[in-house]
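Structure ticket #2291
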Amino acid sequence: MATFPDIPAAGVPEEARVLIAGGGPSGLFLALDLAARGIPSAVIEPRTTMDHTRPRAKTTNARTMTHLRRLGLADLLRDASPLPVDYAQDVIFCTGLTGPAAHELRRFPNAFQLVPGRYGPQPECGQQVPQPVLEEVLRSVAADNPLVTFVTGWSVRRVTRVDGADVVPYAVVAANREGAERTIRAEYVIGADGGSSAVRRSLGLRLEGGSAALSNISILFRSGSLGPAIGLGPAVQYWVVGAETSGMVGPMDLAGTWWAIVQGVDPSVPVTDRDAAAMVRALVGSEVDIEVLATDPWTARMLLAPEYSRGNVFLVGDAAHLNPPWGGHGFNTCIGDAANLAWKLAAAINGWAGPALLASYGEERRPVAARTIRDAADNGKALAYHFADPRLTAAGPNGDAARAAAHAALAVKQSEFDSLGLVLGYSYADSSLVVPDALPVPAEDPIHYVPSANPGALLPHAWLADGSSLYSHLGTGFTLLADAGALAGVPAATLFEPVLAAAARTGVPVTVAVVGPSDDGTHLSQVWGAGTLLVRPDQHVAWRGNSAAAAGAALSVAAGWSPTSLESTRSARVDAVIP
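Resolution: structure written out below.
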């Protein structure tokens, strides 16, 4: 376990271009994404060690793994994960895990985008890994990065605006556990400091929403006999529909450490280790050995900040939204926030951001969080105890009929485990940074993902004929992506020279990539609906079309310049049209 000592006051910086309050997943990812773009930052984090007794988030979805791949961290995380993808990919609903009364009610295969081998919809499949393990990976990488100043043992207490200070307008007060305070001047401040965010309080903002009616208790335990006793086959999660105790059980690693969540408990009733062990045995269905390592009561919350930023102060992750855990989307939504904000901050600091760019962060990310919270809250209305029926364990026709009815009723849970439409199908179509067109837009669906190059959508992934991922051809800035089959022999450098010239004048980073076909021989323009796409640094489509002149104008819009201010940044008009 990596340990980071308390930093003495002399080690806390007096000034930072970007100050990030909170060194959890979203804060550390943001710092590393900024560093990949050449931007230094300081991260202020109170914890010096990771608490492995509170694993909380365990699902890193395919989109987040692809973000990590972009930073060169996907394989590092997979190597650190105690549960490889090859171990299991299914979620099983059952009446218990062991013994003759353990009946499988329904199985959801390849849950959470867990697919061994090459994955199609993204360059990376999902990964089950406890959040503390992921944080340790990010911490170790951040500690070795010269552009990240990682300060542990200190907490941000408040943020104030300094009157008359234009370059470093914010004073951030941080304190250690002994009460010593330091003031850090910063140009940009990021609140990644969780649900009780001091940065958000400094802005006078409160999370809005509600909480679930009943609570839950997480139990971390060790058992040597549970694994061999399970008769249902391996799974990443077993949802136990019990007449008296219902909840979830899953392996934390391959060495006998397990987690359980008992659903629908009274939070006012204290739970001893003995009580927790009895709950686990009630879930699994037999008297297996149980060594309780930790218990953690919690209540699902559906909360959202009314604004994501004020001035140069931004909220990311749990500071901006608290998601119910059903579906494992909360932590992944946090990483999505950081990935959206990082390239925009870098653009502002490097001088090529238009006035609308930073303002678009909340405009784009808040609706994603709201949609995710709605879906997770709906799944919270169909937990294991909602399907409980004492007849489920009965023998004979009555038991068979009850189990068949449960199998049918559990279809409602598909969106929790097979949520590719939610994970990949979100879009920034209404953003001021994208140029809309008149082509049809796929219907929003939490389950079904229809790859689309509609402006605002995530770039449809493809494995190319040479074996590479389409995403491997994207630059770190904008990418003008052209289908090789649509160029009709016209050299891309000649065709797009005006766009590149405009980019050079304005400082907007642009890469031109000619790609295709896919590994099944399909021309990519057939999927895109056009011969060329302008792809943003976060892998979302900003524009699609066939005109180089239109691509130049779209580049200015995507960089945050309004249409009325394009004349100073748009490319020179050209008559060439991509066939």
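Closing remark: The mean pLDDT is 92.
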